[in-house]
Amino acid sequence: MHMSSDPVFDTSAARPYASSRCLPDTLLWSWLHEDAPYGDLTTDSLPLRGRSARMDFFARESCTVACVEEAVRLVELCGGQASLAAVSGERVLPGQALLHAQGDAPALLLAWKVAQTLVEVASGIATATALLVRMLAEAGHHVPVACTRKNIPGTRALAVRAVQAGGGVMHRCGLSETLLVFPEHRALLAPGLWPEALTGMGRSQPERKRVVEVTDIDQAMLAAAGGAEVLQLERFAPEQLAALRQRLDQDGRRPAPALAVAGGVTPATALDYARAGADMLVTSWPYMAPRADVKVTVSAAGEGAP
């Protein structure tokens, strides 16, 4: 279906959204097209065209909101009008309004579920990320919470928006931007060659920090001696992390490599890792969090929520 041929999908009527951080229209259009490739059969079968409606989103529970700007833009792309009642990164309470929309009933119904699901999924990730960030800050540990690229394929842009809304950062957005040597890489190199290869990476990619994932203290010290600027500690216990920090201090290498804990970082372990001396917590845990519960009301214009 060519969207501009349908008045509900008329891109010429779409207004530019003010937020420069909003996900691109091309991505939002793809989500709308996935949900209604040939139109909304139910709505189109009812006498609703030309009937004015309103739609309101509310939080059913406390959460950190994410992608509510995209929800507004989805409504706009479908031909309706919408305004923000909360912004991404805001911590809201049960019953608090997130957005208000009005317009032709078919336009609002077309945007409805895509927008609701987007806000629920993104806000779930943001809320989990914010929980970790808040726990650390309240305990006096300003350690970055970095989320991995282990999001569902095809949802990277959404994951980035949600993690940032929760106060986290991305560990790496993809293979093209960072140098991270895994044990799987080292297994394919000739024995004894990988420290030399690590030095070569520094020459070929001088603007990139060399990150090496290690699974024990001896591997970590060898990687540090080879010039690793960041050691990614795969499933280290907090006690192992503290012991490695002590070994590096005794070694006297300056600057010492940063220590990024990966694997097993959850609310139950985050503070232990921070106390043990982690410079960064790398986690996929927020992606497993339940989605936030968002209530949507749709009513005839002039009825419903104020």
Mean pLDDT: 91
What is the CA–CA distance across the termini? Answer: 36 Å
Tell me the strand order in the biggest sheet. Answer: 7-6-12-11-10-9-8
Strand content: 15-25%
- Mass-distribution shape: elongated
Fold blueprint:
Elements: H1 25-35, H2 41-44, E1 52-59, E2 63-64, H3 68-77, E3 81-84, E4 91-92, E5 97-104, H4 105-138, E6 145-147, H5 156-165, E7 169-170, E8 179-181, H6 183-187, H7 194-204, E9 210-214, H8 217-225, E10 230-234, H9 238-251, E11 258-262, H10 270-276, E12 280-283, E13 294-300
Parallel strand pairs: 6-7, 6-12, 8-9, 9-10, 10-11, 11-12
Antiparallel strand pairs: 1-5, 1-13, 2-4, 3-5
Helix pairs in contact: 1-3, 3-4, 4-5, 9-10
Quick summary:
This protein has 306 residues and is α/β, with parallel strands linked by helices. It folds into two domains: 132 residues, Quinolinate phosphoribosyl transferase, N-terminal domain (Aldehyde Oxidoreductase, domain 3); 155 residues, Aldolase class I (TIM Barrel).
Report on this model:
The protein is an alpha/beta fold and 306 residues long. The chain has 2 domains: 3-123 and 290-300, Quinolinate phosphoribosyl transferase, N-terminal domain (Aldehyde Oxidoreductase, domain 3, Alpha-Beta Complex); 134-288, TIM Barrel, CATH 3.20.20. It has 10 helices and 13 strands. The protein has helices at residues 25-35, 41-44, 68-77, 105-138, 156-165, 183-187, 194-204, 217-225, 238-251, 270-276, and strands at residues 52-59, 63-64, 81-84, 91-92, 97-104, 145-147, 169-170, 179-181, 210-214, 230-234, 258-262, 280-283, 294-300. Helix 1 crosses helix 3 and helix 4 (105-138) packs across helix 5 (156-165). The chain is elongated, with a radius of gyration of 24 Å. Residues 1-20 have low confidence and may be disordered.
